[in-house]
Design brief:
Order of helices and strands: HEHEEHHEEHEEH
Helix content: 40-55%
Largest sheet: 7 strands, antiparallel
Radius of gyration: 17 Å
Number of strands: 7
Oligomer: single chain
Shape: globular
Structural class: alpha+beta
Length: 209
Amino acid sequence: MIVGYQLSDLQRETLAEVFNIAMGRAAKAMSNIVNEEVLLSIPQIRMVPRSEASSLLGGPEQRVYSITQTLDGEFHADAILILPQARSMDLVRLMLGSPQQLELVTELEREALTEIGNIILNACIGTVTNLLEGQFSISLPVLQSGLCGDIIESHAARQSEEDVVLLLQIDFTVEKHSINGHLAFVQTVSSFQALLARIDRFIEKAAQG
């Protein structure tokens, strides 16, 4: 339980719709890169304390890749795409188109993963900020690899405040491959309140037509 800061059903439905729009844009961009139909969906959204997030991402000892972009503006968040290392190579092979040489092109592998993260994060961040009408600066994507628990812990928004994580499961379907990833927005409680205020204004505006 996150000390009184949970999403209402309407807020959750609104965010789900916003992120599904974003995934549609990301899927189109990725389809153009791999020359195959890419389907991306957001089946679940959860709010959890940062201390519990890694347990819902396959466990703190799971080895993952993460691609992060930081938002600063009316609210602050680290937006992190998290992919299990064992399956993320399927996406890299599709992007590079030469799986037999993958072990020889470490730098290309990193660039491909970063580009995947850049496409998905930009689609999400751009859609959220456009629809919620926020003004933000956004950092360049940063790729990391390591244990899931360590990566989540490294993204503590501010040590002086409790952090919460808006956690979205992402389902990738490409050709015969099905890959699950996660998108995590790490925020302080006060920053999360600012996000909720933006969502509520968006809902009110939509209700007024």
